[in-house]
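Sample A.
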Amino acid sequence: MKKIIILFCFTVSMQTAFAQKLNVDSLIQKITTEKDEDKKLELTTAFYTPGINNDPGYPIEIGLKLLRQSQADKNTIEEASAYSFLGHGYRLLGNNIKALDYHHKAIALAEGSGNFSLLSIAKLQMGHIYKDRGEYDKAIQIYQSSSNDAEKGKNELIKAWPLGNLGSVYLATNKLDSALMYSQRVYESHLRTKDKNLQMLAFVNLAGVHSKMGHGPLAITWYNMAIQESAGTSNTRYLNMVYSGLADHYQSIQQTDSCKLYARKAIESVSQTPFFYLSSKPAQLLAGIYENNNCDSTLKYARIFKIANDSLNSSKANQQIVLMTFDEDLRQQELVIEKIKAHEERQQNIQYILIALGIVTFLILFFVLSHSIIINGKWISFFGILGLLIVFEFINLLIHPFLERVTHHSPVLMLLALVCIAALLVPLHHKIEKWATAKLVEKNKKIRLAAAKRTIEQLENNQTN
């Protein structure tokens, strides 16, 4: 009988796993066939279910499949999304170095795509690393940037995600007014979108805010709602967050027994999972409680804290993450400089185009007027010289940046090049000036003379009549 039960459980689990993989494959197929970029991105957000936060292998599987497909399709949105999923999976495994590398790739691709919602997701996922590590100033900076990008996009769900994480960070830094504002906005977004991730994040954040504000019964209500939503699911990370929050709450009101109960539950919820590193905070809490009255328990939880903390914050990993963060900050600064430079070049090109149009318009007017009796030879000579000066100086203006690049800004080489150009342009300028003005003045004189003859003939005819 026992063998039959085991076989039945194995069969069910295999069918569940197969169905999950089939769902991944079918959804990726839909993503690749969708032509509209915003709809394609909306389909990728369907993967961000509570399950993706509780099984590191799931986002890695999605990322690898989507990456292979993106390389076949040569699609930036698919590729950037794939790197975000891979980074998410490795972060859940506690490998922040590899996760950060993938997130940097995702951000670089998203920046090139011009899709603000995609860029928001890429930044959001990277911000989680700094939040997990307690680098809250950096996390706030990234989440705010993600929120700004999301507001420029079209996806409503993506607009809510950075707000929830900003609420978490402000709660951790005891900025309770900001934490409450963002958490309430996330809860309102959950009511509209019915997104489970938003729901759990809103429950935990609101519970924590009310706990720190001294609203004990309200805080317990929110924590119980979070536990009810997680009951019967595999949301181990959220359960750990809820139990850790409850342990902190009971410690703050000096209910030590309840504090110990929920701290232990927080550790147990992740003890046999890849999320063991989340035991660090509750283990530290328990070690502090037992420090003065139970040496065995103190050592036990201090050991758990050390193992969990070392897995996430080893000195070597910290150094590497600092270097990677510095490199990314430097790349972002260079990107800002490039954007400013591109904007200046665009403005300069517009000015060149306007100058060229002005010169063409001036020349057309000059030739039209020179063939009329409106202006005389002196004006033609003056405007002819002026026009030639403008044309030759404009040519010099266009050549100058090219000379700077070729000569590498060497004063000696620049001087020699300008002298050579002047040696060619000055004689050419004089020849064209003499030829053009002489021809045009002579032509104008003939036109004026012909006009004068016609006028005299008309006057004579009038007198005869």
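Sample B, a different protein:
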Amino acid sequence: MGIFTRPDSPWWWLYLETAPRGQRKEKTAIRIGTTAAQRRDNRRDAEQVYHQRMTELAAHIHRLPVERAAIIFSTYATTYSRNVLSHHRGYAREQEIVKTLIAGFGPLPLPAIDRERVQAWMTLRRKAVSGNTVNREVAVLKPMLRAAVPKYLAAYPLTGLKKLPVVPPKRRLMTPAEEAKILTHLAPDDRAIFLCGSDALVRCGDILDLRWEDDHRQALYIRDPKDPTQSRPYEVPVSRRLRVALDALPKSDPYIFPRRRTASTPRNRARAVRMALQAACAAARIRYGRAAGGITFHWATRRTGATRMLQRGAELKAVQAIGHWKRPDVMLEIYAEASSQAARQAVELVSHSRAVPGKGERVKKRA
């Protein structure tokens, strides 16, 4: 079979006939390409990789020595970041993680990075940052080392490596009273950004990419969703109060929120939005941040908005479509939270002296 493509992947794939079952399909780091010339050249490169891998497998089967190139981690990580990670949507954050990994493993030869060494690094790193951060950094390291097999590594060295145990911080929704206070302390453009998240359930990165040409009055067109599980454009309805907030903004720039696009990277742009919310919370004397048991941008907007929709009778599928969640996992979790609140209200009905009518029933008037 040699090389092949998949409709869900932008990379060339190998089919290694002599590899063990379950390991015969192998992804390359070579993109398929968009133009005819790119597809032709990249196909040729993928075929060369296929022949190289089949030669290595044959040498392994017949127990022949396989010579591997020597490379230090910093050189390999820099090349991997440029050729692979740069195509990811979350490249800005992954680029920061690569710098952290190079600081920890940079001068070491790649084969020296084994499970024990990584575990020791995780223990040391945990003293400086949270367990979630360490796990996220290792999640970038793992595919990096997998891609080094077999050119630089004989086998993947982190098999069986477990994540650090993490107690998730308590998060909470925003109350209507808190929302009213926060909105009064936000600048007009920041208020519209906030309402795009809470009423239309749009992600922060997608909000900042909105152009005036994407404003269709009754709907906003999300042309390039930042969620890695979603790639198709979609529309979200515009609420009345969001319409008022958008109409109050000047239209002197192609982007709706140019003031929040001055930072050089999407990550820093989103950070500026969170800092504006933090300042508004401080002015309103509302706690901000998970560590303080306060609100965050995501939970005060998308999470709170979706929960209110479900609590007030919106259909689950409609809310999922507005928030553009591909899988129902998040929606089911939000629905469970909304249902648990309704259940707490229901148990209080037992002690009420007045009967509460069921669906389709009427309360009889006393004579």
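Observation for Sample B: The beta strands are 2-4, 11-15, 25-31, 219-222, 234-237.
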